[in-house]
Fold this sequence. Notes:
By secondary structure, the protein is α+β, with helices and mostly antiparallel strands. It has 2 domains: 30-174, Yope Regulator, Chain: A (2-Layer Sandwich), CATH 3.30.1460; 176-311, no CATH class. Helices cover 34% and strands 32% of the residues. The protein has helices at residues 2-27, 34-49, 81-84, 109-121, 151-163, 186-193, 251-263, 293-304; strands at residues 54-56, 60-66, 73-74, 77-78, 86-93, 99-108, 125-130, 140-149, 198-200, 203-209, 215-216, 219-220, 228-237, 240-249, 267-272, 278-279, 283-292.
Amino acid sequence: MKNTKLSSIRTCTLAAAIILLVSLSINSPAQTTGDQKAAGEWKTVEDVFGFPGANLPEGVVRFNMPRKDLHVTLAGTEIKPGLALGAWAAFHHVGDNDAMVMGDLVLTDDEVAPAMKALIDGGVEVTAVHNHLIGESPKITYIHMGGHGDPVKMAQTIKQAVGLTKTPLPPGGGAKESAADLGFDVAAVEKIMGRQGNVSGGVLHYSAPRAEKLTEEGMDTPPSMGAGTVINFQPTGNGRAAIAGDFAMTGKEVGPVMKVLHDNGIQAVALHSHALDDVPRLFYMHFWANDDAVRLAKALRSALDETNSAK
């Protein structure tokens, strides 16, 4: 009887030990996935900005800060923030505790110097300062930025720079918008573009990533970090749309893209770089037109086909 009790005690003790080991294994930090770690770190970055970021492919999180405070007009058209006034910052993990950041600030003339100083003082690089439009009122300047390091510290620097401007920070969320509300033939535009767009802020957006692998300072750069072609359509009535955005091109692609745009009445308004050490070296051509949306889509698709963009 005594041996039977001892055997039962040993059996129970062994079972408890096995359960404990399994529990420890399941909950061990070593078993934590990279996605769980990334989600936790992006939470600390979200806390800095004060609103949730948009989760994009390949682990990128993007914080959109449209300049809804500005009333910018061009050739009689009031530009919606989603067409050409979208400030943003995108983060991507490049190590256990490191991240890379890329982004764009949309600034009035008096905001440029203080925002630039805040970025530089905080260790975030200013990679370009230039226009995206021509003839807009008031005049708008765009600062492109990039960096590599502690994501929280970089977020704090960018938040400080934004805080020196009148940029309103969004509360997050928002109702889903329908393409049916845009007032031009979205189905025809979709078919011509050969890819699905999305609608936000009353603007139809398309993005076309480059087909080749991209790096910045030797670090892999997902297309959702901003290294691709962006095409936006803002309805202007009677089947027309104002278009803006930028083509991401290698040097040899610049001429063919510019010719297609020029031949179709689309103005190339800027040509420049956005980064300092990207491979392949990319140039960005910004454009503007206000015409029949379907006709513009055909021209933009022809220009896009001159680039090595993913299908």
